[in-house]
C-alpha cells in the first residue's frame, strides 16, 4: 500500500507528529485499507480514507470505509498461518479501534485512534472541504504547499462529485468534493 502510506506520511508530517507515531499510523492505515480492499463489494464502490486529529485529546483518528457487509474481527491464528494478522497489528498499535455503520451509506467504517501528544496545536493552514478551495489559495498536498491556479468540478464515473485542482507545480489533484484539504491564503510558511 505505498499510496496509503504516502498519504499518511504527507498529512501527518505536516501535523508535527513524532517518527514513532508516524510509522505506527502508516502501518495501521495500510492494514485497514488492505482489509477494506479484500471485502466483496460492487465494482463501482470505492474505499474511503479519512485522517483526522483531536488536538484537545492528543489523538489521531484513522478511518477506512467500504461498502461491504460483515464486520472485521481479530482472529486467533495458528503458527502455520501466514496471513490474517492485520487486525492484530491494529489492536497492538492503536490506543483503541472499532467499527461503525457507514454514515449515509451502505457498509461500514473501521477506525483506529493513536495517541499523538505532539500534534501541532496551531497548524499553518486550516482544513476545508475541497469544493471550497479557490484559485489563489495554497493547498498542502504530497507533503508540500502548492499554489492553486484553477479549480473545476467533475463527477466520478460512479456519479460522486469531484474537484480538480490545477496546481502551479506537478499534476492536477482530483479529490472527492467533501475531502478535507489544508489551505492557506499566501505562500508564507
| Helix amount | 10-25%
Low-confidence stretches: none
Instruction: List the domain count as a whole number.
Output: 2
Strand order of the largest sheet: 5-10-6-7-8-9
* Main pleated sheet: 6 strands, antiparallel
CATH class of the largest domain: Alpha Beta
State the fourth-level CATH superfamily of the largest domain.
Answer: Histidine kinase-like ATPase, C-terminal domain
- CATH topology name of the largest domain: Heat Shock Protein 90
Structural class: alpha+beta
Mean pLDDT: 83
Q: List the secondary-structure elements in sequence, H or E.
A: HHEEHEEEEEEEE
Strand content: 25-35%
Alpha carbon gyration radius:
17 Å
Shape: globular
Summary keywords:
SH3 type barrels, 21% helix, 2 domains, four-stranded antiparallel beta sheet
Write the layout of secondary structure elements.
Layout (H helix, E strand, L loop, with lengths): L1 H13 L4 H19 L10 E7 L4 E8 L19 H8 L2 E6 L6 E8 L10 E4 L8 E4 L2 E12 L5 E7 L5 E4 L3 E5 L5
Explain this structure.
This protein has helices spanning 2-14, 19-37, 86-93, and strands at 48-54, 59-66, 96-101, 108-115, 126-129, 138-141, 144-155, 161-167, 173-176, 180-184. The chain has 189 residues and is of the alpha+beta class. It has a six-stranded antiparallel beta sheet. Helix 1 runs antiparallel to helix 2 (19-37) and helix 2 (19-37) packs antiparallel against helix 3. The radius of gyration is 17 Å and the shape is globular.
Short description:
By secondary structure, the chain is an alpha+beta fold. The chain is built from three helices and ten strands; from the N terminus they run ααββαββββββββ.
Amino acid at each position: 500500500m505505498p499510496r496509503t502510506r504516502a498519504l499518511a506520511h504527507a498529512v501527518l508530517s505536516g501535523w508535527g507528529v513524532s517518527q514513532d507515531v508516524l510509522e505506527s499510523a502508516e502501518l495501521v492505515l495500510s492494514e485497514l485499507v488492505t482489509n477494506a480492499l479484500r471485502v466483496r463489494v460492487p465494482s463501482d464502490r470505492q474505499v474511503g480514507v479519512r485522517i483526522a486529529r483531536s488536538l484537545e485529546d492528543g489523538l489521531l483518528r484513522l478511518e477506512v470505509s467500504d461498502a461491504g457487509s460483515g464486520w472485521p474481527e481479530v482472529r486467533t491464528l495458528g503458527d502455520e498461518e501466514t496471513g490474517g494478522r492485520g487486525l492484530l497489528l491494529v489492536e497492538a498499535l492503536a490506543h483503541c479501534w472499532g467499527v461503525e455503520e457507514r454514515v449515509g451509506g451502505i457498509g461500514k467504517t473501521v477506525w483506529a485512534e493513536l495517541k499523538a501528544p505532539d500534534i501541532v496545536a496551531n497548524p499553518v493552514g486550516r482544513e476545508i472541504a475541497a469544493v471550497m478551495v479557490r484559485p489563489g489559495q495554497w493547498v498542502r498536498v504530497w507533503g508540500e504547499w502548492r499554489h492553486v491556479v484553477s479549480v473545476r468540478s467533475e463527477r466520478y464515473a460512479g456519479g460522486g462529485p469531484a474537484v480538480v485542482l490545477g496546481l502551479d507545480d506537478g499534476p492536477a489533484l482530483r479529490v472527492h468534493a467533501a475531502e478535507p484539504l489544508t489551505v492557506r491564503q499566501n505562500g508564507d510558511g
